[in-house]
Amino acid sequence: MELELESSSISVSMVCRSVLLEGYVADYGDREKATAIAALIASPENVHDRMRDRY
C-alpha cells in the first residue's frame, strides 16, 4: 500500500497515547491510508477515526 494522500482536510491530534483523526476524506482509500499512517505512530487500537466522508 502506498502511504501518500492529500492531507489538507485531515487534522491529526495526539491525546496521551492515542491519535485522533478528524476532517474529511475523499474516498475509502484515503481513510484507510490515514488510519494506517496513524497506526505507525500509535498502535491500531489507539487510532480514533472521526473523519467524515466526501464521497
TrEMBL record:
InterPro entries: BON_dom. It comes from the Bacteria. Pfam families: BON. Keywords: Plasmid. Residues 1-55 form the BON domain. This is BON domain-containing protein. It comes from Rhizobium leguminosarum bv. trifolii (strain WSM2304).
